[in-house]
Specification:
Helix content: 25-40%
Shape: globular
Order of helices and strands: HHHHEEHEHEHEHEEEHHHH
Number of strands: 8
Distance between the termini: 43 Å
Strand content: 5-15%
Radius of gyration: 21 Å
Oligomer: single chain
């Protein structure tokens, strides 16, 4: 994953998300990326005992980046400590996404993806594998060169399983509505993660920038159970898919009867991209998949479409909440003997969801 200026510029250009500089700097300064970690462990000094060390696993969890939904298409970045303090007594039950970063660690693109999920209703937790004291460098993200530490995928699978288990113990997490999603090496981890206990159960998975193919057998395949739908996203000419043994896509390995889908972008700029979720077209593809398998709040765009379909005028269907959309919502509420509101609330979501079923 290229985490340089070009990637950040594309994120700003093609997505509605801009992360505050202070929030971005907080995670960059912690050294959870290739460019900011002070030193890496020699790969020959890594042992299988290091992979499963309970303290190492907890470091990835305690250092996780967390994005929490706080309203309609709104979310905020907090630490794990703040999450546990703020929501310990909450009555809310969040659908929850575990986001697995790529081989270069947490960067601005990681936060873009996590905020996108949180803006659409998911409590999103990104365990920081780079927070481990012993960690070998697995890629050079400026040269599109991976495989520097073959066993990195084992660590990433362990971190994914640990995060899923830890999340399910939180009282405000809806353990029946868990998503595993990853980019690049994190996409690989999301693909090959194999549930070994009930606490590992997931509702769905999303794989970005990975083909499910590799010359190393333990990095290849798709280990989602038959009933677990998977969405994979890939650019046909992805610059990271630069060896013959990685060619292809996850489609042939999917159970197409459970709603799984492999999307390969074959033309235009998406065909040449590794990081795809910066683009509105891809975001809409992901949202359509998630709405098929999760009960998520309606987005601003969904609300505008519904209001228009019911004869109200929310203004242009542009995904931007404004005075005209609010006025249309309040007109709908008045027609249903409900008082006006100053912003979108839970009652209005419930009303729209109910009316949507009748359309």
């Amino acid at each position: 994953m290229n985490s340089g200026f070009a990637g950040w510029l594309l994120a700003l250009t093609f997505s509605y998300f801009v992360m505050p500089d202070s929030a971005r700097a907080e995670w960059v300064d912690k050294g959870y990326g290739n460019d900011t970690r002070r030193s890496f462990t020699d790969k020959f000094e890594m042992t299988s005992e290091d992979y499963v060390d309970p303290e190492e696993k907890m470091r990835t969890w305690n250092s996780a980046a967390v994005w929490v939904p706080i309203g309609l298409n709104r979310s905020r970045l907090i630490s794990m400590e703040e999450l546990l303090e703020t929501y310990a007594d909450s009555d809310e039950k969040f659908p929850t996404a575990i986001f697995m970063h790529g081989c270069a660690g947490l960067w601005s693109g990681s936060h873009l993806r996590m905020k996108f999920l949180a803006d659409n209703g998911f409590l999103t937790i990104g365990p920081a594998s780079f927070a481990r004291k012993k960690y070998a460098k697995s890629c050079n993200d400026y040269q599109y060169k991976g495989g520097l530490f073959r066993d990195s995928h084992s660590i990433r699978k362990i971190d994914a399983g640990h995060a899923i288990e830890q999340a399910k113990e939180l009282p405000f997490v809806d353990g029946d509505n868990m998503l595993l999603i990853g980019l690049s090496e994190g996409g690989m981890a999301s693909a090959i993660f194999r549930p070994t206990k009930a606490a590992h159960s997931l509702r769905a998975r999303v794989i970005e920038g990975w083909t499910c193919h590799s010359g190393w057998y333990d990095q290849a395949g798709l280990n989602a159970p038959d009933g677990e739908p998977v969405l994979s996203l890939l650019g046909k000419d992805d610059p990271w898919i630069n060896t013959q043994d990685r060619k292809g896509d996850c489609g042939p390995l999917m159970n197409k009867e459970n709603g799984s889908k492999s999307v390969v972008y074959k033309t235009g700029q998406l065909a040449r991209r590794h990081e795809l979720l910066e683009f509105r077209e891809v975001q809409e593809e992901v949202l359509a998949f998630l709405r098929q398998h999760f009960d998520l709040p309606l987005s601003v765009r969904d609300i505008q479409k519904l209001l228009t379909a019911m004869g109200y005028d929310p203004g242009p269907i542009d995904g931007a909440w404004g005075a005209k959309t609010l006025a249309a919502l309040n007109a709908l509420r008045a027609d249903n003997s409900l008082p006006a509101v100053s912003e979108m609330d839970g009652d209005s979501q419930s009303l729209l969801q109910a009316l949507k079923k009748d359309l």
